[in-house]
Specification:
Number of domains: 3
CATH architecture of the largest domain: Roll
Low-confidence stretches: none
Number of helices: 14
Mean pLDDT: 96
CATH class of the largest domain: Alpha Beta
Helix content: 25-40%
Radius of gyration: 21 Å
Strand order of the largest sheet: 1-14-13-17-15-16
Strand content: 15-25%
Shape: globular
Largest sheet: 6 strands, mixed
Distance between the termini: 53 Å
Amino acid sequence: MGLLTFKMGGIHPPESKLSAKSAIEEVVLPKQAVVPLSQHLGVPAKVQVKRGELVKVGQLLAKGEAFISADIHSPVSGKVAKIEPRVDSTGFRKESVVIDVDGDEWDESIDTSTDIVKEIKLDQKEIVERIHRMGVVGMGGATFPSHVKYMVPDGKTVEYLIINGVECEPYLTSDHQLMLEKGEELIIGITIMMKALKVDKTIIGIENNKPDAIENLKNIAKNYQGITIEALKVQYPQGGEKQLIDALLGREVPSGKLPLEVGCVVNNVGTAYAIYEAVQKNKPLIERIVTVTGKTVGKPSNYKVRIGTPITELLEKANCDMEGTGKVINGGPMMGKALVLLNVPVTKGTSGVLLLEKAEAKRMPVLNCIRCSKCTDVCPMGLEPHLLSIIARQAENERCEEEQIMDCIECGSCVYTCPSGRPLLDNIRLGKSNVGFMIRNRSRK
């Protein structure tokens, strides 16, 4: 029997895992940390500190008071130098807390030992509250506040917890290395998530190009109830939550609906580890693993980085050839976005930093559409990217909504396969923004 995968569309770009098996290294603390108050989907957190105030590692900087928001904690110790808008990886200015680093003094409530804590003492409600207060968000890139997923509405039931260990983006290896080095903590994190959801079945999906991670987690999971590991076919974008549910369970999430509609909650392996640290160590989300990679990187690596660290410091540590670099991407080559500035801070959603050579950074000339239908064939959501691109560019927002533009997961498969170099995803992203604005205005009436 063949390996599991999703049924519709998909591509297989070169994997280019240059940093594979690169052990996780710690990055030296920056002299100054810039901590944006919006590192998550939803409403920005409200600042709780003042200029001149001394803060410790793990201290609350900003509180997520809205339902969909997340707390922000200090990743360093030192003095609050400024509270002002700073440019982040999106290229826009976001309100941020700027901290001059002085030492590395941690809040006394955090367990800083390396001991693995297996016993889960908190009950279901306490777990959800701890996840909330520790500022945990989805670590796969979406940065959706994690506690919201564990507040299951009345009338809905969760049958499966699905854990995404796919890491199908070319170049990125941070999740792979996390599964190798922190497997026990990750599995304990999953048992915590199961307790929070009151489920007894978890499936971890991992693509078959990571046999060492599959074997490692299978050996650890033998000692835990209800956790299975499934090897998946290497097929991009296998890590999309709807594609992963399709591959593992054969269930299709309806258009415009969430995985909860088919009895599932999906989280990334990085989120599972962050939840372990939050619940068992009382440690807020103040650092993450970041892959720094690319053909102009002298030392492709996986780094453990404090939030707020300038990306320039990672580039320097990885011996990057900036002269030969044409573009620096926040994330992977398929779904990542080019950085406008290089001294922007690492945030909770920074999974990787990719450097492209000047030749590979250039887009091909845009030619006329030849109606080959390749973009439609590879779309994992069954959409028509060529059509969506045209009507989005023409601002036909109502028709865009009718053609289900909001179902697009922005995987970039359509652009990758287009022989005419059409800016399909650029136009679709514009259309999604316009339709989202239209929907929000409609709901206010």
